[in-house]
UniProtKB/TrEMBL annotation:
Residues 7-241 form the NAD-dependent epimerase/dehydratase domain. InterPro entries: Epimerase_deHydtase, NAD(P)-bd_dom_sf, UXS-like. Keywords: Decarboxylase, Lyase, NAD. This is GDP-mannose 4,6-dehydratase. It comes from the Bacteria. Its cofactor is NAD(+). The keyword Lyase applies. It holds the Pfam family Epimerase.
Length: 321
């Protein structure tokens, strides 16, 4: 029998590497395309021994060529943390636009199912809370986060157009904040930043007064949601995230507690357009995918802290010249 084959763009990143792993477990052959601008081959090194896994250095904003059959294209390539997309604004816009067009073109040529990794940032700083998929969002297109938010909104529109105009079998996941092993300690996202600071005994830098909320999902739950979405015949968009909302200050205190650190908390300036609240309405995912998160946030944080410790990730002191 012909083996199913998946192409994962951005497969050497945090989420992409977990997804490649899971697709191999599901029996897929996996072609991972990555230009390593924010990811690293170290994230998928352990998969290279598997003859069903291929890692290809490729910038998906250039031409994408994959020979042979392809059953699924999962488009995750994009800088994803605020630090990354502020440092790579044009690459972010290009991968969300040209990279998405190329990935959809591949799905069209191969008659493959296409999954777009979109984001809760499509809702911007939301005026509706929690956010259902029917909410159109509140995005500042000319603010510092606009490059990411608008690139993803363009990617969603392009995905819908390939479905309606070209008959490509597409789906869109709106992913909410996810955490777990293989996050980069200095990618600027709250959880790896706080864990690194707590392990080094430095103050945890909470933005503003820390009352802004986030809903954080453990990576295994997120990947389960993506795989169910891929298997379904739903076009989406579908929110995939955890509804357990907590303030950033609560999150910082929880990490101090779980690491047993003696760190204090220091309050720093809040970035422009930082969302005030963020919580997915996952009614749709529950109903059509039978999916909801099962890993408790404390347990997910314990596993992530354990990984940071075992890899000595983020433990080394920051070098200040
Ligand atoms: P990541 O930075 O760890 O992974 C992104 C990967 O894409 C990296 O390996 C990077 O090298 C690769 N990449 C970027 N531009 C590329 C290009 N032009 N060609 C080929 N590869 C390219 O980020 P992540 O957290 O794993 O996010 C993965 C996807 O999920 C992104 O599309 C992101 O927008 C989306 N997402 C993530 C989260 C989250 O909480 N992690 C939340 C919402 C959405």
């Amino acid at each position: 029998m012909r083996r199913r084959r998946a192409v994962v763009t951005g497969g050497a990143g945090f989420l992409g590497s977990h997804l490649c792993e899971r697709l191999l477990q599901e029996g897929y052959e996996v072609v991972c395309l990555d230009d390593f601008c924010t990811g690293t081959s170290a994230n998928v090194e352990h998969l290279l021994e598997d003859s069903r896994f291929r890692l290809v250095r490729a910038d998906v904003t250039d031409y994408i060529h994959v020979s042979g059959h392809v059953d699924a294209v999962l488009h995750l390539a994009s800088p994803a943390s605020p630090i990354d997309y502020l440092q790579l604004p044009l690459q972010t816009l290009k991968v969300g636009s040209i990279g998405t067009l190329h990935s959809l073109g591949l799905a069209k040529d191969k008659r493959a199912r296409f999954l777009l990794a979109s984001t809760s940032e499509s809702y911007g700083d939301p005026l509706v809370h929690p956010q259902p998929e029917t909410y159109w969002g509140n995005v500042n297109p000319v603010g510092p986060r606009g490059v990411y938010d608008e690139a993803k909104r363009f990617a969603e529109a392009t995905t819908m157009a390939y479905s309606s105009a070209c008959g490509v079998d597409t789906t869109i996941a709106r992913i909410f904040n996810t955490f777990g092993p293989r996050m980069r300690p200095r990618d600027g996202r709250a959880i790896p930043t706080f864990i690194g600071q707590a392990l080094r005994g430095e103050p945890l830098t909470v933005a503003g007064d820390g009352s802004q909320t986030r809903s954080v999902c453990y990576v295994d739950d997120l990947i389960e949601g993506l795989v169910r979405l891929l298997r379904s015949d739903t076009a989406g968009p579908v929110n995939i995230g955890n509804c357990g909302e907590m303030s950033v200050l609560q999150l910082a205190r929880l990490i101090i507690d779980l690491t047993g650190s003696s760190s204090d908390i220091s309050f720093v300036e809040r970035p422009q357009d930082d969302p005030t609240v963020r919580r997915p309405d996952i009614t749709l995912a529950r109903t059509i995918l039978g999916w909801e998160p099962v890993v408790d946030v404390r347990e997910g944080l314990r596993r992530t802290i354990e990984w940071f410790r075992s890899e000595s990730v983020g433990v080394e002191p920051v070098f200040v010249p």
